[in-house]
Amino acid sequence: MRAFYCDHFVLPLPPEHRFPMAKYRMLRERVIAEGIIAPADLIEPAAAEWTDLALVHTQTYLDGVAAGSLPREILRRIGFPWSEAMVERARRSVGGTIAASRAALEDGVAANLAGGTHHSFSDRGEGYCVFNDVAVAAAALQRDGLIARAAVVDCDVHQGNGTAAIFRDDPSVFTFSLHGAKNFPFRKEVSDLDVTFEDGAGDDEYLTALRTHLPGVLDRQRPDLVFYLAGADPYEGDRLGRLKLTIDGLRTRDRVVFDACRDRDLPVVVAMSGGYAPDVDAIVTIHSNTIREAVHSCLSVSAS
Length: 304
Ligand SMILES: [Zn+2]
Hints:
Elements: E1 2-4, H1 22-33, E2 42-43, H2 50-53, H3 59-67, H4 72-78, H5 84-107, E3 109-112, H6 133-143, E4 150-154, H7 161-166, E5 173-180, E6 193-197, H8 203-221, E7 225-229, H9 247-263, E8 268-271, H10 280-303
Parallel strand pairs: 1-2, 1-3, 3-8, 4-5, 4-7, 5-6, 7-8
């Protein structure tokens, strides 16, 4: 299984910043150290082309990001200070999801060890999301005739509001988001299917909801590619998530998604999304378990 990374572009963030950039490099090192991904299958993607980004984002927004001339309010909502590295990293992160999507169509499963920036709208970013990688990848693969229909299974603890808005009037991409009812974003968009949880929801409640809704989403949409946003922030130790899933529960969540896709012969591309636990090692364990389950589902395809 191929995995794509872009952690060489580290943003200069103050140490008290709650977005843990370190998790990306640690994740890459973990999947190699534990033999989950072979070094030859770990690939640094090219930056997404501006023309790809323009399939989803407005030219005004792209020009503002490129030139560092975004309105102060938009930059504040994104949460990162502007820099050349911020632009390059945002483009690489989208490039990783585009490359992983193409790899998933060839191999069945592939991953971006970053991405899942689902709070980005066509004309603005917010919540640490500059560009919407999944939306751009879906649009780019559609343009290239590689897919017609897609499904987004968004298990980050925050609603995929940008993705929901971008595809609101587009039946070719089904948006399914499971998230905390009281979390950011406080004004939710309308996905094709939203499942919400109250504060403190745990493994049983979450997994029951996922198992209840996921088969119907896949069977109705009949996607050519599934985008899975495997956020680590439903974790009980997360400081923003407000839910109470365990590390084992999150791994079961991953397995439920991969099994449902494999049973239907649907290729799946994984993006990591959020994770804000003070214990960065726990975040990396959750993300690396996702990659482990992805590899396992890949092997089960080859074996069957
Ligand atoms: Zn999140």
